[in-house]
C-alpha cells in the first residue's frame, strides 16, 4: 500500500468530497453522504462497473461487423506441360442486409485451353450482380439478426448491472461507516465517563485525606477508574480497527488508496438532532414505482427478452430451407441497364426428415423462458416482502430511538440529582456509581439503537437499489 502523510490525506479528502466538512476543535467531521460520494467517484469497483458498459458496447460493435460490406477475390490457375489449362478469377463486393437479403456484385474473368464451358467469359470479363433471398427459414430471423438483437439487449442490461454493482459497493461501504461511527460514539461516551471517574477519584482522595470520608472509598473509586481505563483502551482499539476497515473504501482518482487521519471523525449522533430527515422519508411512498423499475427485475426481463429471441430463432429453424439466388449478367458496364435476358438463377431447398434436433432445441428454448418467468415472479415477491419487512424495521427503530433519547435524558437527570446529593454528603459512593453506570449503559444503548436505525435505513435503500438517491 502506498503511504501518504497525514496532511496529504486530509487534503485529498477535501478535494474529493463534494460536501464541505465541518471543522470543530481541530477535528474534521466526515459525513456519511460525503464518504459515499468519494466511494462512488473513485473506488475501483465503480471503474470496473464502467468496464461492463464498455465491454457491452464493444460486443455490440463486433456483432454489427457481421453486417459490414466485404470485398472478396479468388484466383485459381493450372499450367501443365507448357499449357494453360485454366485461369479462373472472381472478385467483387458483398453486402449483407438486416432483412435477410444478400447483395453481391463482381467481375468474373476466366480463360484457358481446357476451361469448363460453363465458366467461359468474354475476354474483358463478365460483370454480374446477385441477390440471395431466403423464402422460408431465415426470412424473418437468422443467426446474425438474433445475435445483434441480443447484443443490443446485453448493452441495455449492462447499465443496470452497473447500478447493481455500485449499489452493492455503497451498501458495504455504508455498513463500514456506521460501524466506524458506533465505535467512535462509544469511545466518546467512555472518554467522558473516564474523565468523570478521574475527577471523582481525585475528589474522594482529597476528602479522605481530610478525614471526611473513609479511605475504603478511594479504593472503590480507584477500581472504577481502572475499569473505565480498560474500557477506553478497548474502545480505542475498536475505533482504530474500524477506521482501518473504512479506509478500504477510500481511493484517489489515480487508484491510490488513502488512510484516514486521526483528526478525521464521523458525525456524532448528538449533533444530528435525533434522526435527521432521511431521503427515504421524502419519496418512500413511491415504492411501487421503484420496484417496477428495480434493476434486478429489469435484468431478469432482459434475460427473458434474450431467451425469447432464441426461441423465435429455434422456431424458425423448424421451417424448410428455400433460398432464391438471382444474378443478372453484363458484358460490360456500358450495357448494365440494357439486356435483361442474360442472367443466372436457382433455388436450393432442404429439410431434415424428423426434425428431432430442431424440435428438441425449440423445446429447450421454451423451457428456459418458463424458468426465467418463474424466476421473475419469485424475485419480485421476494423483493416486495423484504422491502416491506425492512420498512417496518426502519420505522420501529426510529420510534425506539426517539423514545430512548428521552430515556437517556431521564437517566442523566437521575445521575445529576444523585451527584448533587453525593457532593453535599447525603449520598454514598455506591449510589452515585450505580446511577452513573446506568447513565453510561443507557448512552451506549442509545448509540446502538441509532446505528441499528441507520443500518435499517441502509438495508431498505439497498433492497430498493436506491442508495445513491440518499446522497
Structure summarized in a few sentences:
This protein is of the alpha+beta class and about 475 residues long. The protein has ten helices and nine strands.
Structure characterization notes:
It is a single chain. The chain is an alpha+beta fold. The protein has 2 domains: 6-62 and 146-307 and 368-470, Outer membrane efflux proteins (OEP); 70-139 and 321-353, no CATH class. It contains 10 helices and 9 strands. It has helices at 6-16, 32-42, 44-64, 143-209, 216-247, 279-283, 287-292, 295-316, 356-423, 429-464; strands at residues 22-24, 27-30, 70-80, 83-96, 102-111, 126-134, 264-266, 321-330, 343-350. The strands form 2 sheets. It has a 6-stranded antiparallel beta sheet with strand order 3-4-5-6-8-9, with no helix packed on it. Strands 1-2-7 form a 3-stranded mixed beta sheet. A hairpin with a 5-residue loop joins β4 and β5 (102-111). α4 runs antiparallel to α5, α4 runs antiparallel to α8 and α8 packs antiparallel against α9. Mean pLDDT is 86; it is low at 1-24 and 271-277.
Question: How would you describe the shape?
Answer: elongated
Secondary-structure element series: HEEHHEEEEHHEHHHEEHH
Largest beta-sheet details: 6 strands, antiparallel
CATH topology of the largest domain: Outer membrane efflux proteins (OEP)
Q: Uncertain spans, ≥5 residues at pLDDT below 50?
A: 1-24, 271-277
Total strands: 9
**Number of discrete helical segments:** 10
Query: What percent of residues are in strands?
Result: 15-25%
The class by helix and strand makeup works out as alpha+beta
Distance between the termini: 29 Å
Amino acid at each position: 500500500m502506498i503511504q501518504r502523510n497525514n496532511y496529504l490525506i486530509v487534503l485529498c479528502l477535501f478535494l474529493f468530497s463534494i460536501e464541505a466538512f465541518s471543522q470543530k476543535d481541530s477535528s474534521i467531521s466526515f459525513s456519511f453522504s460525503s464518504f459515499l460520494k468519494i466511494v462512488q467517484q473513485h473506488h475501483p469497483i465503480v471503474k470496473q462497473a464502467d468496464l461492463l458498459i464498455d465491454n457491452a458496447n464493444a460486443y455490440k460493435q463486433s456483432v454489427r461487423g457481421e453486417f459490414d460490406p466485404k470485398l472478396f477475390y479468388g484466383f485459381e490457375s493450372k499450367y501443365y506441360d507448357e499449357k494453360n489449362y485454366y485461369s479462373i478469377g472472381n472478385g467483387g463486393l458483398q453486402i449483407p442486409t438486416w432483412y435477410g437479403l444478400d447483395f453481391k456484385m463482381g467481375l468474373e474473368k476466366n480463360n484457358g485451353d481446357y476451361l469448363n464451358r460453363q465458366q467461359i467469359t468474354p475476354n474483358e470479363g463478365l460483370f454480374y450482380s446477385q441477390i440471395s433471398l431466403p423464402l422460408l427459414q431465415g426470412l424473418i430471423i437468422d443467426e446474425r439478426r438474433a445475435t445483434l438483437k441480443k447484443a443490443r439487449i446485453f448493452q441495455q442490461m449492462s447499465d443496470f448491472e452497473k447500478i447493481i454493482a455500485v449499489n452493492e459497493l455503497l451498501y458495504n461501504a455504508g455498513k463500514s461507516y456506521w460501524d466506524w461511527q458506533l465505535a467512535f460514539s462509544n469511545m466518546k461516551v467512555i472518554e467522558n465517563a473516564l474523565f468523570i471517574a478521574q475527577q471523582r477519584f481525585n475528589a474522594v482522595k482529597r476528602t479522605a485525606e481530610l478525614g471526611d470520608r473513609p479511605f475504603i472509598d478511594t479504593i472503590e473509586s480507584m477500581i472504577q477508574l481502572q475499569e473505565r481505563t480498560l474500557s477506553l483502551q478497548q474502545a480505542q482499539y475498536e475505533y482504530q480497527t474500524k477506521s482501518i476497515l473504512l479506509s478500504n473504501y477510500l481511493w484517489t482518482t489515480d487508484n491510490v488508496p488513502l488512510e484516514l487521519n486521526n483528526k478525521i471523525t464521523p458525525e456524532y449522533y448528538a449533533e444530528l438532532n435525533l434522526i435527521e430527515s432521511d431521503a427515504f422519508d421524502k419519496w418512500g411512498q413511491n415504492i411501487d414505482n421503484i420496484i417496477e423499475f428495480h434493476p434486478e427485475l429489469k435484468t431478469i426481463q432482459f434475460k427473458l427478452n434474450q431467451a425469447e429471441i432464441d426461441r423465435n430463432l429455434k422456431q424458425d429453424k423448424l421451417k424448410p430451407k428455400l433460398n432464391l439466388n438471382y444474378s443478372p449478367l453484363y458484358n460490360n458496364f456500358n450495357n448494365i441497364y440494357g439486356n435483361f435476358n442474360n442472367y443466372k438463377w436457382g433455388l436450393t431447398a432442404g429439410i431434415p426428415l424428423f426434425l428431432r434436433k430442431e424440435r428438441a432445441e425449440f423445446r429447450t428454448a421454451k423451457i428456459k423462458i418458463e424458468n426465467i418467468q418463474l424466476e421473475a415472479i419469485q424475485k419480485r415477491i421476494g423483493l416486495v416482502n423484504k422491502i416491506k419487512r425492512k420498512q417496518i424495521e426502519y420505522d420501529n427503530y426510529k420510534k425506539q430511538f426517539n423514545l430512548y433519547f428521552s430515556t437517556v435524558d431521564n437517566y442523566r437527570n437521575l445521575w445529576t440529582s444523585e451527584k448533587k446529593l453525593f457532593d453535599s454528603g447525603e449520598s454514598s459512593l455506591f449510589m452515585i456509581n450505580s446511577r452513573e453506570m446506568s447513565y453510561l449503559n443507557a448512552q451506549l444503548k442509545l448509540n446502538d439503537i441509532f446505528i441499528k436505525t441507520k443500518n435499517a435505513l441502509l438495508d431498505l435503500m439497498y433492497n430498493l437499489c436506491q442508495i445513491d438517491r440518499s446522497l
